[in-house]
Design brief:
globular; about 15% helix; binds zinc ion; single chain; alpha/beta
Length: about 130
């Protein structure tokens, strides 16, 4: 898998959610599917437990009900650097990790990674 795609309105929603949570970390579950060799994110789900203020590394995805439509996790880096930490990769869930970095203004602040920490191309569809 080399590419991740999502709609612009969904991206804008994710960025707005991130700005609202700042300076705390925000976490969202990503729902979607694999289509023609790329990962398509169709919607986001707020985790069942209130996670505002909970660090990503404190979040336990294995406490979630089994749901095969959850393909990965999104979280923010209030530090402003959209690179996965070793801890992020240890907590990798699903097939894609999306990280948004402060100031959460545009797709330029958002990156997607696979389980090996390799950056995937992010395609935003208008
Ligand atoms: Zn992180």
């Amino acid at each position: 898998m080399e590419e991740v795609s999502l709609r612009r309105d969904l991206l804008e929603g994710i960025l707005a959610y991130s700005r609202e949570a700042h300076p705390k970390e925000a976490i969202l579950l990503l729902r979607g599917w694999v289509e023609g060799g790329s990962i398509r994110i169709e919607e986001v789900v707020i985790p069942p437990l209130a996670t505002h203020g909970l660090g990503f590394s404190d979040f336990n995805p294995y406490a979630l009900p089994f749901d095969p439509s959850i393909i990965g996790l999104f979280h923010t880096h209030p530090s402003g650097i959209a690179e996965p930490s070793a801890e992020d990769l240890n907590h990798f869930y699903g097939i894609v990790m999306v990280i948004a970095a402060y100031p959460y203004r545009s797709e330029g602040d958002v990156k997607a990674f696979d389980a090996a920490g390799r950056e995937l191309r992010l395609e935003v569809a208008d």
